Prior knowledge:
The chain is an alpha/beta fold. It has helices spanning about 50-65, 100, 125, 130-145, 180-190, 205-220, 230-235, 240-250, 265-275, 280-285, and strands spanning about 5-15, 25-35, 40, 45, 75-80, 85-95, 110-120, 150-155, 200, 220-225, 255-260, 295-300, 310-315.
Amino acid sequence: MSAAVYAAGTVCWRRVPADDGGEDRLMVLLIHRTKQRDVSFPKGKLDPGESMQAAAVRETEEETGLRVSLGMSLGTISYDLRTGSTKTVQYWAAEVTPEIALASTFAPNGEVQALEWVPWDEVPRRLSYPADRDLFAVFTRLVDHDLLDTFSVTLLRHAKAAGRSPEYPEDRLRPLTSSGAEQAQTLVPMLAAFAPKRLYASTATRCLSTVEPLAAHLDRRVREKDALSQDTWDTGDLEGMRKLIAKIVKRGRSAVVCSHRPVLPDIAREIVLATGSVPGAYLDEATSLPPAGFSVFHLSRRRPGAGILSVETYPLKH
Length: 318
């Protein structure tokens, strides 16, 4: 039997002014593929060693000229190929801002014949495949509840660090191992796909070193916070953490928060409190992360009272 095939893509959307000056119209991007002669969403197969997130961003840009960031996960679709293997495609919603649209360099080519912006409620009848229509039903539910415009708070456990030893008399000074440094580099395209605007980290060396490659890639500074450190957590003082998470949520802009395994459950609980969300067992999975694992909490900008909309959890594979 042929090996499974993995791919990733996006459902790109934008709001455009109505002709009559009324409420903006929600439009969704469809691509007309040249060889297949079908209508679908931007997507493509993963390159060797590539993550789903990075592939979704790369393939969208290659097929449409649009450099997007990822919003809510819309789930996966699977279907059988003529080769006998199964293809699984993971999709995310992706907003196309006016700046992104203007920067597009798309031209018809051998892979994509045309791009078409379609009113969102006309999309199902335009798609060629039932699986795409099923996927779009998830997007439709977000629209119906005004939950499409989102931002994310990513909880990140630091990469693999050196063990406790006399060489590091203070726990916070433990550095990353060589494999941990590789993990930090591997994380860059995965986390960058969600376009974080701010990066926060515990003051421990292992946390700062984990986010530094991402900071260099995004040209953003790392905001060192004692409130995220295990030393502060060990004292039982969570007030600084509570204020920090409340501030991040209130800003409504995507952020990465890097901390320690024992601290992550309390950070997640502060997200729950700051958003009025319902706690549950899903928080255990979202915070039981191996080194360099991360969870992406999606929150609504337009309806902050809606709470946590979804959580994507990714234990980094070695």
